[in-house]
Amino acid sequence: MTDIVTPQRTKAILQKYHLQLKKSLGQNFLTNKDILLNIVMAADVSAADDIIEIGPGIGALTEQLAKRAHQVLAFEIDQRLIPVLQDTLRPYHNITVLNQDILSADLPTVLQQHFDGQHHLKVVANLPYYITTPIMLHLLQAELPFTCMVMMMQKEVAQRLTAMPGTKAYGSLSVSVQTLTTAQIAFNVPRTVFLPQPNVDSAIVRLVPRSQPLVALHEQSRFAKFVKGCFAKRRKSLWNNLLNMYGKQPLIKEQLQVVLQTRELDPQIRAERLTVPMFVNLYHDLQKIKK
Ligand code: SAM
């Protein structure tokens, strides 16, 4: 039997099950084996790994993962695809497919039920693009010992996640994610390798969680709000954005000035020039501000 990923087999499966793909669920299926193999290579998948996949679709990526990994646990929200996956993935005995929304999954509990805890834990997925950020945050906030996460997403989002200070793509998402991980684009993927073709190009991002997050998980949402505030008016100075967040009373201004001076930060600097550690330091310093 040829691999699921080939355009011929993908079309045959869709026809056999009379499947109309749902745009609302981000259903764009990969039909290029080289790309799939590059994804698997970017995650360095081996028999030492247990893999979480989000959105197996008709099983193209799942199949390549199962050929190399110890176990694969795949979350698929679309009930129509469950019998299809039972059929296409029948030859593999190391795959569990759960008909579940990844965002409502209690990951630590589910993983304990399905994995033995003796293998490296990795996420490998061709994400449904409409919920890329919520999925990433859900995974990162689950406090699981992931070795890496290799995920396909819209190219613009990939560029934002991995952006460096001073670039157009650098913003609050870059800073928040980079406090928890080191993020790199592994490679770009053209829109032509999907069925149906999406309106955007894609990229594979490799995230490696930091052994020590730069901001504790329980502070992440407050930190994210702070960083968003710093970027609120992108073309205005950091000083201006801080005043909008903290208030313009003389006492506040005085305290803000002291913090910026201590950190040797020019108040006229724009948020996009601050590195991730600078945001972290500033956030901690500004906790002490008395209103
Ligand atoms: N893995 C397949 C591939 O590479 O060809 C399909 C990827 S397709 C871009 C995204 C998949 O995610 C679809 O099968 C879709 O039904 C599924 N999906 C969408 N929202 C989901 C959710 N909240 N939880 C789990 N799966 C979801």
UniProtKB/TrEMBL annotation:
Its main location: cytoplasm. The keyword rRNA processing applies. This is Ribosomal RNA small subunit methyltransferase A. Keywords: Cytoplasm, Methyltransferase, RNA-binding, rRNA processing, S-adenosyl-L-methionine, Transferase. It comes from the Bacteria. SMART domains: rADc (SM00650). GO terms for molecular function: 16S rRNA (adenine(1518)-N(6)/adenine(1519)-N(6))-dimethyltransferase activity; 23S rRNA (adenine(2085)-N(6))-dimethyltransferase activity; RNA binding. InterPro entries: KsgA/Erm, rRNA_Ade_diMease-like_C, rRNA_Ade_Mease_Trfase_CS, rRNA_Ade_methylase_Trfase_N, rRNA_adenine_dimethylase, SAM-dependent_MTases_sf. The gene is rsmA. It comes from Candidatus Paralactobacillus gallistercoris. PROSITE patterns: RRNA_A_DIMETH, SAM_RNA_A_N6_MT. Residues 35-211 form the Ribosomal RNA adenine methylase transferase N-terminal domain. Coiled coil: none annotated. Pfam families: RrnaAD (PF00398). Belongs to the class I-like SAM-binding methyltransferase superfamily. rRNA adenine N(6)-methyltransferase family. RsmA subfamily. Its EC number is 2.1.1.182. The keyword Aminoacyl-tRNA synthetase does not apply. S-adenosyl-L-methionine binds at residues 28, 30, 55, 76, 101, 126.
